[in-house]
Known about the structure:
The protein is an alpha/beta fold. The chain has three domains: 45-249, Spore Coat Polysaccharide Biosynthesis Protein SpsA, Chain A; 256-374, no CATH class; 394-593, Rossmann fold. It contains 24 helices and 16 strands. Strands 12-11-10-13-14-16-15 form a seven-stranded mixed sheet, with helices on one face. A five-stranded mixed sheet has the order 3-2-1-4-8, with helices on both faces. Helix 14 (287-301) runs parallel beside helix 16, helix 15 packs across helix 17 and helix 17 (346-358) runs antiparallel to helix 18. 41% of the residues are buried.
Amino acid sequence: xxxxxxxxxxxxxxxxxxxxxxxxxxxxxxxxxxxxxxxxxxxxxxxxxxxxxxxxxxxxxxxxxxxxxxxxxxxxxxxxxxxxxxxxxxxxxxxxxxxxxxxxxxxxxxxxxxxxxxxxxxxxxxxxxxxxxxxxxxxxxxxxxxxxxxxxxxxxxxxxxxxxxxxxxxxxxxxxxxxxxxxxxxxxxxxxxxxxxxxxxxxxxxxxxxxxxxxxxxxxxxxxxxxxxxxxxxxxxxxxxxxxxxxxxxxxxxxxxxxxxxxxxxxxxxxxxxxxxxxxxxxxxxxxxxxxxxxxxxxxxxxxxxxxxxxxxxxxxxxxxxxxxxxxxxxxxxxxxxxxxxxxxxxxxxxxxxxxxxxxxxxxxxxxxxxxxxxxxxxxxxxxxxxxxxxxxxxxxxxxxxxxxxxxxxxxxxxxxxxxxxxxxxxxxxxxxxxxxxxxxxxxxxxxxxxxxxxxxxxxxxxxxxxxxxxxxxxxxxxxxxxxxxxxxxxxxxxxxxxxxxxxxxxxxxxxxxxxxxxxxxxxxxxxxxxxxxxxxxxxxxxxxxxxxxxxxxxxxxxxxxxxxxxxxxxxxxxxxxxxxxxxxxxxxxxxxxxxxxxxxx
Length: 602
């Protein structure tokens, strides 16, 4: 107690200097020193700000400064060095702060291990995590403690909004909408907008719910928040209190492939663990529609296993309903489809499985609705927009496609085929192919907006992304250009191409006439590259010229291209168009083995 009172006296002086506590007000309310000490201890519980760090000399000092600048008068800053091997640079920064911070050094065990060490060693009643490359605003802890203490609730976690800044992102704020505690677990399942450093957590929550799972490399935070939210209320403070830095060296960038696979497994568990009450609390009229919304989220973010689990849950809920509830559920799904849900194929997938599951139980009226939404039909609005660019030059056509998002991609302006679900297999297989064939340089022709390729560790010395759309190349250069990764604006059909080992051309020739495709292939052959990796639809018996259309599948082994059998074939596992294109593949050929393409039809 004596030590606590001594600390409190220092904190009082600090608070008075910061202007957060009035000396005269305290003295008048609590005339003697002992009563003022007790007031400070009771009214300002100790908060431990935890900073785990590994080789963090680049940004660590800024994070520590932001922690020490907190206006809340009772904090400790605890730094855990997770086995940094940067020649002592990280440790030197920490030690320069002397007694202002507590310091623990441990062998490298990962972020979860460092956080668990801090939880075991913290002296505070509340835990606040700060990544070494992020920043707190000065009022972060004070505002969250104010909300927590004013609520009077002991089983509460407070979280806030945050601002992203840095070299890989435009500055923008993320401020969740009004999320009630009973909606929280559903929300973190369908959204990826909770930042762990915004949380203020009572230490008792770790005692009751456990600590971070050290077997998880990138999802240890969401795993714990989901477990914790089953027993503690998560309350939103709608203010931006954390600044999250985006930069090439951060762990989530280096572990992108691991993160996606780990997230898929984690979210699959979330989908299966959510109770019906939690699902219905999200605001949908029935559980079928609620799980369908989860499926949409998983599809957009590329989590195939979690997507399938959500679809399965939706179907199971549908089968358990009576006839009236089923009709209501179908109506809800149709309304979701009207907002673009059906266009992505998810609604069709769910309804098709449902129709198979219930057999002939549905009345004729419901079957008619199902047939209407399961039958492929052109999107008139999209087609009319495509009509406006058909007669333009390649440069003007694709500039307008990009500017107006004519392909209609929810995530990428290159279209739904470039989202994380449709590229899951090739993101895994392309690096293997490059290693197998000793490829050290690659031309991505065209590279598009680089939505999915940014998630791939190619393992090569030189990557060049080329596209005819100048504005898009400018954005790519600004956001993603760095040593070994470059972007250039080129007309792939006629401009001189950089010399590389492999030309990668996905979803390109399918948008070109035979004549334009032939010209582009000739340019690829003239570039001096050894290999071409390009899209081919292996089950097509013949190819049609583009004519007045905007896209069609091409089998590169059929006339007029007549490619030989590929050296390697990667089936993409395409699910677009209600699984109409399951033969979509990437084929690898030696460019010297490819004949000059004819300019006529077949």
